[in-house]
Amino acid sequence: MVIPAFHVTFVNMRPSHTTFKRTVTAFASVVMFSLPLSAHAESDGTSALDRLRQAPTPEAAARVVREIQLEWSRSGSASMDLLLTRGRDALERGDLTEAVEHLTALTDHAPDFAEGWHTRAMVFFQQKRFGLAAADLERTLALNPDHFGAIRGIGAIYETLGDGAMAYAAYKLAETYNPLDKEIVEGLKRTAASAVGVDL
To answer: Signal sequence: where (predicted)?
Structure first.
């Protein structure tokens, strides 16, 4: 299933809190209503996702996650894979400026490679550039609707903005993919009180 197109607009690339919340709310409503249907597609990725959902222990789930992430990290181009590796290495050592440079080169040259957008969203989140992170997560999910890391990222953005109810909804959706993920479980605990009375 194709997620409906959604275009994010910013003022000077630094959206106001109100503008950003409106942007992410519209985006989330697209994601929340579109993603569950994608899980029924027949593919090798879905088979791995089924194993992830049914993993008996967190350790078993982590092994499947690594398998899925390895598959998602293959762009089909050695040079693009190198840019992803350099971007991730820069992120790991805390050089966020360099990470953005490598990952922007990657998204420019391989715009259909979801993992490039997701990894850059992680960097933007670290930089507290939440509007740009949301835009990259949108692109990630348009290319890979089953990207549970991107869904969890939406939850993290909402939680950071103080919207516990929407954060809980995003974490709850991420949980349908990876119910034993510690970050998702802890996110649900932190935001559960905000979700009382909210129709999910």
So the answer is: 1-41
What is the tens place of the pLDDT at every residue in 80-100? 999 999 999 999 999 999 999
Q: How many CB atoms lie within 10 A of CB 74?
A: 12
Domains in the chain: ranges and CATH: 25-195 (1.25.40.10)
DSSP per-residue codes, 133-159: HHHHHHHHHHH-TT-HHHHHHHHHHHH
Distances from the Cα of 153 to the Cα of 43, 76, 137, 141, angstroms: 24, 25, 8, 11
One-character DSSP codes across 47-66: HHHHHHHT-SSHHHHHHHHH
Q: What residue type is 138 in one-letter code?
A: E
Phi, psi of 117 (to 5 degrees): -65, -40
Rounded-to-integer distance, Cα 141 and Cα 147, Å: 6
Distance between CA atoms of residues 89 and 98, nearest Å: 10
As given in the structure block, the two tokens for residue 75 are 């762009």
Q: Which helix (H) or strand (E) holds 98?
A: helix 96-109
